[in-house]
């Protein structure tokens, strides 16, 4: 979303409440970028449907903000809300952060990293320990960027944290505790040997059209929404191998309905920070990722698309069905399952 409003809503449970900072120390950071015209209005240029990269970085809607922090551990929930830009976040001090959660929730084990690659719509929760810094210290969250972004003079900066002398409540155990063991999940408990099928699909630009598995959303519409790129049964476990053989673009691929586990990236283990339940995967240039997932909870048809929104809008989206045979009526069709009812004034 470029010109509209964006926000986060947070889900809590007893496990994360016992492990991680809460309240004012549990902070949403929605990061985006924009370009502005001389009159302050938003400008839009999608570079021939390749993407939009603004020269102003916004956090929670403010350009390059500064946040005052106590000398304690904070939990930050980072959402990349840029419509095209990916980030490679790091601290100006070069100190590591601790990643504790990914798109689908808590990781099994926390991971310390000095930087992480963050595509559109991906969510990462990180702990930053400000107790090691003296009051009056400024720490910046910076952007080292990635291949095939368009960068400007100040897109290497995101925001800053100023450490204050405000007293810390040391009765709160989370003030200086970084947990190691976190929580299991269905996605992360899966084993590759459970997979009934492996599907291979490519993400690419084909004769000017953005495609997933050789399909565009136009083709789905023209099929009266019958065309699918996969048709697992309810509770099936599958491996999806997504290939990006292009050196010119990266694709954050969002698979609806499920959380998945990243098995490998170019035959190697996933990056430490992505070892948690995911629903968006960064498929970088000349990368092949293998994803393990279980299609549970609901029958119906669900989307898979690139979250670079100019790619999605020009037609990099397809659908898969779960628990449906050809010709079956979708019980969760958004048009018929819950029709709109208009109330009189």
Automatic annotation (TrEMBL):
Plastocyanin-like domain boundaries: 55-132, 213-323
GO MF assignments: copper ion binding; oxidoreductase activity
CDD domains cross-referenced by the UniProt entry: CuRO_3_BOD
SUPFAM superfamilies linked to this entry: Cupredoxins
Highest taxon listed in the record's lineage: Bacteria
Pfam families: Cu-oxidase, Cu-oxidase_2
InterPro entries for this protein: Cu-oxidase_2nd (IPR001117), Cu-oxidase_C (IPR011706), Cu-oxidase_fam (IPR045087), Cupredoxin (IPR008972)
Similarity comment text for this entry: Belongs to the multicopper oxidase family.
Record-given protein name: Multicopper oxidase
Organism of derivation: Arthrobacter subterraneus
């Amino acid at each position: 979303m470029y010109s509209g409003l964006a926000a986060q809503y947070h889900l809590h449970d007893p496990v994360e409440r016992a492990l991680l900072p809460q309240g004012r120390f549990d902070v949403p950071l929605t990061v985006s970028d924009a370009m502005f015209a001389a009159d302050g209005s938003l400008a839009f240029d999608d570079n021939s449907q390749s993407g939009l990269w603004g020269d102003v970085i916004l956090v929670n809607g403010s350009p390059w903000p500064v946040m005052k922090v106590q000398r304690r551990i904070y939990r930050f929930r980072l959402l990349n809300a840029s419509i095209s830009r990916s980030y490679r976040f790091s601290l100006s001090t070069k100190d590591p952060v601790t990643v504790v959660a990914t798109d689908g929730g808590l990781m099994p084990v926390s991971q310390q990293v000095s930087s992480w690659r963050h595509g559109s719509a991906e969510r990462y929760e990180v702990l930053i320990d400000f107790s090691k810094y003296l009051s009056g210290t400024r720490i910046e969250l910076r952007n080292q960027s990635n291949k095939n972004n368009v960068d400007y003079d100040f897109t290497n900066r995101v925001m800053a944290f100023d450490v204050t002398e405000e007293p810390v409540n040391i009765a709160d155990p989370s003030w200086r505790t970084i947990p190691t063991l976190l929580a299991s999940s269905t996605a992360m408990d899966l084993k590759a040997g459970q997979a009934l099928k492996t599907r291979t699909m490519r993400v690419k630009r084909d004769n000017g059209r953005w495609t997933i598995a050789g399909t565009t959303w136009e083709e789905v519409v023209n099929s009266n929404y019958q065309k699918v790129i996969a048709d697992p049964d309810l509770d099936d476990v599958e491996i999806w191998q997504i290939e990006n053989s292009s050196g010119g673009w990266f694709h954050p691929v969002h698979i609806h309905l499920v959380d998945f586990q990243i098995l490998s990236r170019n035959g190697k283990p996933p990056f430490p920070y992505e070892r948690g339940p995911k629903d968006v995967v960064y498929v970088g240039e000349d990368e092949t990722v293998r994803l393990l997932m279980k299609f549970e909870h609901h029958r119906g048809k669900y989307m898979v698309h690139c979250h670079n929104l100019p790619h999605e809008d020009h037609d990099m989206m397809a659908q898969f069905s779960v628990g449906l045979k050809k010709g079956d009526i979708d019980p969760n069709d958004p048009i018929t399952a819950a029709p709109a009812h208009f109330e009189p004034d």
